[in-house]
Design a protein that fits this description.
By secondary structure, the chain is an all-alpha fold. It is 43% helix and 0% strand. The protein has one domain.
Length: 135
């Protein structure tokens, strides 16, 4: 009896510890599969050599450059996992950046993303569950 209780508790603890890693991997997989193809058109300006707004969206650079990273133009992260309304990237793509204290033009320059692309980005932000970094 004692061994089975210990085994059960150990299993539960391992599941809790593994959950964020699984969520993080799912978030990364969704980025690679669904979002990177959309933002590839942004890489011309947002590339590693001299990224516009100090934000690189090159393959391999994002989403680490977005998730929980404070935006330069507003007092919020580029992406707050699980909450598009608290994600500056979402506001820049929708042209609502001034409403949250941001500035500059709606992205991408030269034309808005279509509803399908915006829906995919919204679903990606909502589906990411990476916990906030420790302060």
């Amino acid at each position: 009896m004692r061994t089975s209780v210990f085994t059960g508790l150990a299993g539960a603890a391992l599941a809790l510890l593994a959950s964020p890693a699984l969520a993080d991997q799912a978030c990364l997989d969704a980025w690679t599969r669904d979002i990177q193809p959309i933002v590839n058109r942004c890489v011309g300006c947002h590339q590693n050599a001299a990224p516009a707004g100090k934000l690189s969206l090159q393959k391999g650079a994002a989403p680490a450059n977005l998730i929980w990273v404070k935006a330069d133009e507003a007092d919020m992260p580029y992406v707050t996992p699980g909450d598009p309304t608290r994600s500056y990237l979402w506001h820049k793509l929708n042209g609502t950046q001034a409403e949250v204290g941001g500035s500059g033009a709606q992205m991408p320059l030269g034309g808005k993303l279509d509803a399908k692309a915006l829906g995919a980005i919204e679903a990606w932000i909502t589906g990411c569950t990476e916990p906030a970094p420790a302060s």
